[in-house]
Design brief:
With about 375 residues, this protein is an alpha/beta fold. Helices cover about 35% and strands about 20% of the residues. The strands form three sheets. It has a nine-stranded mixed β-sheet, covered by helices on one side. The termini are far apart.
Length: about 375
């Protein structure tokens, strides 16, 4: 049983809508919309933070000079430091391109010519300064010469080579004796014109500031002539192409040949190597090659050679004598027989009973200069 009787819902369903304009009036509504309530603001209390003197010092330095920071005393760079550095770098590059390479930009003809003239002047001054520096610094004045197998130059030619290398320039600009540009191929090309016997030059060592060690290769030596020039004994090394290389002042005596007859000439006008003797007398060069071949044939039969002697350097003289260690002489003529005939004659003699007589020194000489005959004595 209900003590309160509920009101019917239908009565609230059809109530009229509330109209504020009618209730307050139109003017009253507008004033309510424009109303701004007064708000009282309170200043917030400052939050207390921990003190960081290092950070404060860093911020102060950045404010005063953001591009100069003592990183030795501060552990961390500002965030914008590298960005600013990069900007300055790009700005500098841009300035160089726009300022010093301004010729690329469209300008007047007069301005372009002025800039070209300035660049040419700067280039010429720079080139002159560079060449002046090259001519006065790191110039090699001390040379150490070493020689390859069967290669040799006497002291006089070494001095000539040294002076020649120091006086010449590669390409007419760079000195051949500059330490930084010292090159064996360049020196070889330079020296070849004056010293044709030189075949190769190698740079073994560069010693700062003005010393170098070279390895020199010359034409293989065919023989060393031992002869008297103006009553004085001299030793001359002859290359395989007939070039007179140099004096053998160190007595290397490669395949020595003695010359009986002295040579006399005016030494004031030159020396023996300047005569180009064997290059103009090919018969004499052929005689030396024949001697070398006969020596090999004789040695194959167990005979030891003491020395080889030629009567003279006269173009008409083709004779030569091989002295054995027991003083038996073998006499030949370089123009009388060809190589095959010489080989057959030597083998026929050495394969006979004469070989025992030669070894026992029962003979004084064997003359093989006449065809079909051999003279003994």
């Amino acid at each position: 049983m209900l003590f309160f009787k509920p009101k019917p819902k239908e009565k609230f369903k059809f109530l009229p809508a509330f109209n504020s304009a009618k209730f307050f009036g139109e003017k009253k509504r507008k004033s309510l919309l424009d109303y701004k309530p007064s708000v009282k603001s309170f200043k917030p209390k400052k939050l207390e933070t921990t003190v960081n003197p290092q950070k404060d010092q860093l911020e102060k330095l950045v404010e005063e000079n953001p591009y100069q920071i003592d990183i030795a005393n501060l552990r961390q760079l500002p965030v914008n430091f590298l960005d600013n550095l990069s900007n300055y770098w790009r700005a500098g590059i841009r300035k160089i391109i726009n300022g010093y390479l301004g010729l690329l930009a469209p300008t007047s003809i007069i301005e372009t010519l002025k800039k070209i003239l300035i660049l040419i002047t700067v280039g010429v001054v720079g080139l002159i300064s560079f060449l002046s520096f090259m001519d006065t610094n790191f110039i090699v004045t001390g040379w150490d010469f070493e020689f390859g197998p069967n290669s040799y130059l006497d002291k006089a030619k070494c001095r000539e080579l040294q002076n020649y290398l120091q006086a010449n320039r590669f390409g007419g600009i760079i000195p051949n004796n500059h330490l930084l540009f010292l090159d064996g191929n360049n020196m070889q090309l330079t020296a070849k014109s004056k010293f044709p016997e030189i075949t190769k030059i190698e740079v073994l060592q560069k010693v700062f500031p003005s010393r170098a060690k070279l390895l020199i290769h010359t034409e293989p030596v065919l023989t060393t002539l031992i002869l008297k020039v103006n009553n004085k004994t001299e030793f001359w090394r002859i290359a395989q192409n007939g070039t007179i290389i140099s004096k053998d002042n160190h007595n290397l005596l490669t395949n020595p040949i003695y010359v009986d007859k002295d040579i006399t000439y005016n030494k004031e006008t030159g020396s023996f190597d300047q005569t180009n003797f064997f290059e103009t007398n090919l018969d004499q060069l052929d005689k030396i090659y024949t001697i070398d071949y006969v020596k090999e044939l004789v040695s194959n039969f167990g005979l030891k050679i003491d020395r080889v002697v030629i009567p003279s350097l006269s173009p008409s003289d083709k004779n030569f004598t091989i002295w054995l260690d027991n003083q038996v002489k073998l006499i030949f003529n370089s123009s009388q027989f060809d190589q095959k005939s010489i080989q057959e004659r030597v083998q026929k003699v050495m394969n006979s009973q004469l070989l025992n007589q030669i070894k026992s020194a029962k003979l004084q000489y064997i003359d093989m200069r006449v065809a079909h005959r051999v003279y003994v004595g």
